[in-house]
Write a structure and sequence with these properties.
By secondary structure, the protein is α/β, with parallel strands linked by helices. It folds into 2 domains: about 1-160, no CATH class; about 165-290, 3-Layer(aba) Sandwich (Rossmann fold). It is about 35% helix and about 25% strand. It has 10 helices and 14 strands. It has helices spanning about 5-15, 50-60, 75-80, 100-105, 135-145, 175-185, 195-205, 220-230, 240-255, 275-290; strands at about 20-25, 35, 40-45, 65-70, 85-95, 110-120, 120-130, 150, 155-160, 165-170, 190, 210-215, 235-240, 265. Strand 2 and strand 3 form a beta hairpin. Helix 6 crosses helix 10 (about 275-290).
Length: about 300
């Protein structure tokens, strides 16, 4: 839901209808999909396997949310990877049924607990709790920092926790090895070598996230590094020889970017890494060592 928060909050401010859908069983994640009038879609959920089902629910434009139950079809199974016949459940809730304070919390990528009160399959109310207003049980869930859904006597509590994102700006064996290491940790990984697309990806990164720039083309890799420095990524790394690092620094300096304190170059802890897999391990270890530490569970 973090990825759609900016667009959905804009809809809420402008009075434009948006219906937010997320899966509550059997898979729980922070992924969500929003539908706007005229067939607009924001975000991605289950690789799009259930977009038609959820769109039909959103098009009813009901004043209150609904719990949608379904069984995976053969076609949907191929798309989403769940076995055919698997029971799945979703919530589809109008954005204006959410309390307004949820959107700033999601934009800040804070863990939140979304409590939905249900009357059978009708969502009668939605409440959101962050660390400050949570009770002991809710704080335990928020501190665990993993998406989960808890059934209560009156409905459901969906705990949302942001997943680290890793943008690999480059291609080749080192990029592939780093992407594999990131996925092994459960991070959301994007490998992109085109500078114009890296800029958009970098702009959406938060202090929880990382970006690593690599490549042998000074112009292309320097543009990617510039995009990374203009964003809020908590970790900015660069791979390349000393000559390449200097060439990038010169390219940036020519554009009045001389403060490279945020750049880890060469990226990775000094563990004597040589192969792509070893270099990837050293970079991931450095990202983990430098990522923000939670304060009081936040």
């Amino acid at each position: 839901m973090y990825d759609i928060a900016l667009s959905v909050s804009a809809c809420a401010r402008s009075g434009t209808r948006a219906d937010v859908a997320w899966m509550i069983s059997p898979v729980v994640s922070d992924d969500a999909l929003a539908f706007t009038p005229g067939g607009g879609r924001i975000g991605s959920l289950a690789a799009g396997a259930f977009d038609g089902l959820l769109s039909d629910a959103a098009e009813r434009r009901l004043p209150e949310g609904r719990r949608i139950t379904h069984r995976v079809t053969d076609f949907e199974s191929v798309v989403c990877g769940l076995p055919a016949g698997t029971p799945v459940e979703f919530l589809v809730v109008p954005a204006d049924q959410f309390p307004a304070e949820i959107w700033p919390l999601l934009l800040d990528r804070r863990p939140v607990a979304v409590t939905t009160t249900l009357d059978e399959d009708v969502v009668t109310s939605v409440a959101v709790t962050s660390w400050e207003g949570a009770d002991q049980r809710e704080r335990e869930l928020l501190a665990a920092a993993r998406p989960t859904v808890i059934a209560t006597d009156t409905g459901l509590v969906t705990v949302l926790a942001p997943v680290e994102r890793l943008v690999v700006a480059g291609q080749g064996p080192y990029a592939e090895a780093l992407a594999d290491q990131g996925r092994l940790l459960g991070w959301k990984v994007v490998v992109e070598s085109r500078p114009e697309l890296v800029a958009g990806l970098a702009a959406a990164l938060s202090p929880l996230d990382a970006i690593v720039v690599m490549g042998h083309d000074v112009e292309a890799s320097s543009r990617c590094l510039l995009a990374a420095l203009e964003g809020d990524a908590g970790y900015v790394g660069a791979l390349g020889s000393r000559a390449m690092q200097q060439s990038r620094a010169d390219w940036l300096a020519y554009r009045d970017v001389t403060d490279l304190e945020r750049v880890q170059g060469p990226a990775g802890l000094d563990i004597g890494a040589r192969s792509p897999a070893e270099v990837a391990v050293s970079i991931v270890a450095q990202i983990l060592a430098q990522r923000p530490r939670p304060v009081d569970g936040q």
